[in-house]
Amino acid sequence: MALKTEALGLAIATELPLVVVNVQRGGPSTGLPTKTEQSDLYQAIWGRNGDAPVPVLAVCSPADGFYCAIEAVRLAVKYMTPVIVLSDGYIANASEPWLVPDLDEFHPFPVHFRTDP
How, if at all, do strands 56-58 and 18-24 pair? Predict the structure, then answer.
């Protein structure tokens, strides 16, 4: 996340709908690159220059990742802003029984582009 802060600021300024998925882990400098942690929370919420808020969603289970991804895209397209989806190593490497939902149950979210310069 620290290395992507400048790019996120540019995406906010240009109103680019973007979804950033951050699967948090201990960094290589900690000596524990396979250890899971949730240390990027404050950086995801507050870690940008100036007044640049973005929505931040957190996945609570492997199946919830599907619904969080849909919600992230819906928010990104509706508000033309980057959205950050947080997970951690335990959730990313976990599995659970999950019934594939009927896609007809999801409401479409159309994109409205500006037509005037």
Answer: unpaired
